[in-house]
Each structure stands twice: as C-alpha cells, then as structure tokens.
Amino acid sequence: MTRIRGTGQEPCGALLGAGWWGVAALVSPLLRMNLRRRARHGKEIVACLPQRRGMPGQPRPPGPLIWLHASSVGENVAIVPVIGQLLATDPSLHVLVTTGTVTGAEVLLTRVAALPGHARVIQQFAPLDVPRWVRRFVRFWHPDAAALVESELWPNLIAACRQQRIPLALVNGRMSDRSLAGWRRARCLLRRMLSAFGWVMARSMEDAERLRRGGASHIDLVADLKDAALPLPCDPAMLATLRHRLAGRPVWIAASTHPGEDATIMAAAGLIRQAVPDALALIIPRHPARGVEIASMAGAAIPRRALDQWPDMDDGVWICDTLGETGLFYSLGAPVVLGNSLPGCAGGGHNPTEPARMGCPIASGPQTANFRQAYTRLGHGARCVSTAHDIAAWIIPLLQQPDTARALGDQARRLAAPDPEVACQVARALRALGGM
Question: Which residues contact 13 (CB under 8 A, 6 or more apart)?
C-alpha cells in the first residue's frame, strides 16, 4: 500500500475546485436544455430526467446502503459480481447503483435480475456534476459508503461526499497516460479528488502508478474487476433458433465495432468469401444505432437483426444491431475480431475476456491500451491483425479447420477463467469502509 504525505497543494486544489463549482453552476441551464435534447434522441429517458438533477426516483430504504456509480455498459457489467457479494453477505443491505447511459442501465437491470436478493438493488441515473444537483442527491440517499468505478472523477460529486462525511472508494481505478497529461494544468485539483478516496483499487500496476502520481494515497488492491465477471447471458431457446437458422454455415464475428473500422471489416468479409463461399460475417456494432450506417456502406441490401431479418445463403454479412445479445452470438464459439482496435478508429480496444470465456478464438487490432492487462493474460491466445488481409489470413484457416478453431477457443476459455475472489475482496473492502 502506497502512502503520500501532504503536498502543500491543498489551497490550489480548493481554488480550482471553486472554479469548477462556479462554471458548473453557471452552465446548469444549458445542461437542462441538453438533457431534453438527448431525451428527444433516445439518449435519456424523459421520466428519469429529474434524476439527472439529483431528484430521487423512489424513497430511500431503511438500513445500510452502499452506492456504486458505474457510467456505461462495461463498468456496469464489471460490478455485478460485487453487487452479488454485497447482497449475499448482509440481508439488510441495499445497493444503490447509478448509471450514466440508458444502455448501461438496461444492461445492469438485466444482469442484476439473476442475482439472489436483486429486489434490494436500486437503479438511478447519476446526477450531472452541478453543485446543487449532486448535493441534493447525496443528502437524500446518504449512503454508508460510496464507490466510483474506473475513471468517474467528478469534482462536485466528490466534494459533496466529503462534506457529508461519506467514505469514498475508487474501484477498478483507471488512468491512462493521456488522461494524466490532460490534468497537468489542474494537477492539484486531481490530487484533491484522488486524496478523498479512503480505499483505491487500481486496474493494473500501470494504472496504480499513474493514480499514485496523480495523488491517490490508499492503493490497497491491484486487480481487474472484469476478471471476476461471469460469461455473458444467452437465451438457450434463441441460441437453438440461431443455430437452426444458420444451418451449420461457417461463421465469424466482428464485435464491438466503431466508426473507422467498417470498411476494413467489409473488405475482409469479401476476401474470406472468396476462399470460403458460404462464410458469414456477423458484425456487432458497439452502438446498435450504427446498424443503419453500416448497412448503407455496402451499397446492397444487408440483413439486420434489429429489423428481425435473417441471412440467407447469398448474404455474406449479417448486421447484429440489437442490445444485449452479444452473449448469444459469442455462444456460437466462432472466431471473434474485437473492434475499437483497428487502424482508422479512435482505438483503445474492448474486453477480450468476454468472448474468450465463451470459447471463441480471439483477434484484435493493435490499439488495445485500455485492456493491456487482459491481453497480456491471454498471451499468444489472442492474434493481432491490422488489415483486411490480416483478418482474412487468420479467419480462413479457422473456418476450414473447425477442430483447430475449437482448440483455440478452449485455450482462450482456460486462460480467461473468472476469479471470483476479486469481487469478494472489493465487497469486503466496501463494507469495511462503511463500518459494516
């Protein structure tokens, strides 16, 4: 555990914090307008907009309460095992979970529904970081302990917790070199925020070092919470239907794709069809709304899952643009190329343990900095590809030799086996932080 002594920079942090406080307060009318605009585009739920201003969506239950804030899908999936451990250890405990996206909320509620005691989980949308909005939220819920997940560092929210003497934890803390450099002009504000955490879990040794340099003084655990995640859910009846519809065709998957990768994937699908004429590429965009955009790129009719369209033998591509069905497609055990990693996109990668735990051979582009530790764990079990020709050269032999593909998938499953002890450690730390 690393300790950092006082730096004498607290006044600087307070000054910058006051500046952020003032700016956030001034722009609150614009934030209200933006929330309404987002609701018109389906990015917010109209009935839940008051929650974004810190207003509760339901009464606070009596007894102990632990609050977890996880912004989007990946973070919400990662904390589900921790929620399960918390519910199992104390039948009087409630868990409040705030999310920042509609998709994250939907995925969270779906996953939590399978946990014993799930009725004691409360989902709310996180208040925006406006002083009076976060104060209203914190005063109403007043949790016994609060945990922010990964990189959710919001000055006013953290300040409100400090004012109400709510113990804070940073879970699966993440900070890239770029993020740390981005804080260089507000380094003392970063130090002020990170020093507020009484318990810090860093996702990797590299993240731990950057958080320490930023000002975290209680780094007590270095582990990746996503290593504790269970396999993605899959409806057995739908899987049987999917297998029947595909009728044994050789399939490969391009998963969690982002803008800038579509042309490479489409080109790879064409090359693969030249060698394996009945091959089918399943493209799963990270954001399902992009299904229309991807379909329009091809210049021909491409079946889309969101329209309940199924591919026939003449189709080389099927766009699987639905929410919450990635586990269904991974259950095929087909080779997977993970997106947000190929040249031409913003990059950073996606979590390879999800397909690996379902027996899928894994490949990815070179931009995987956000999941470096997970890829290190898989070692040679994950292939690096950059071009359409790279993808085709990897996929074609696996489609032609199913036994080789199954062996690679089994190897990936073994290397990515979940570690439930990580979730237990986090749950114990949160309960201890809250004096439970």
Answer: 188, 189, 191, 192, 193
206 given a catalytic annotation: no
Is the whole-model pTM more than 0.90?
no
- Residue 85, helix vs strand vs coil: helix
- CA 361 from chain centre, in angstroms, equals 21
Instruction: Tell which CATH architecture fits domain 236-415.
Output: 3-Layer(aba) Sandwich (3.40)
Q: What is the pLDDT of residues 257-268, one digit of tens each?
A: 999 999 999 999
- Beta strands 317-319 and 336-338: pairing type? unpaired
Q: Where in the chain is the domain with CATH 3.40.50.2000?
A: 236-415
Q: Where in the chain is the domain with CATH 3.40.50.11720?
A: 10-230+419-433
Instruction: Please answer whether residues 9 and 191 qualify as being in contact, where contact means their C-beta atoms are separated by less than 8 angstroms.
Output: yes
User: Residue 156: which residues within 8 A CB-CB, separation 6 or more?
Assistant: 20, 21, 24, 129, 130, 131, 134
**Which residues neighbour 253 within 8 Å (Cβ) at sequence distance 6 or greater?**
281, 282, 283, 284, 329, 330, 332, 334, 335, 336, 337, 355, 360
Select which of 75, 152, 325, 354 is catalytic. Answer: 75
Give the residues of the chain that fall short of pLDDT 70: 1-26, 299
Q: Could you read off the pLDDT of 174-200 as tens digits, one per residue? A: 888 888 888 887 888 899 899 999 999
CATH code that applies to domain 10-230+419-433: 3.40.50.11720
pLDDT tens, residue by residue, 364-401: 999 998 888 788 888 877 999 999 999 999 999 999 99
- In the DSSP assignment, the letter for residue 126 is P
Instruction: Give CA–CA dist 329/305, Å, rounded.
Output: 12
Comparing C-alpha atoms, which of 133, 140, 131, 124 is closest to residue 70?
Answer: 124
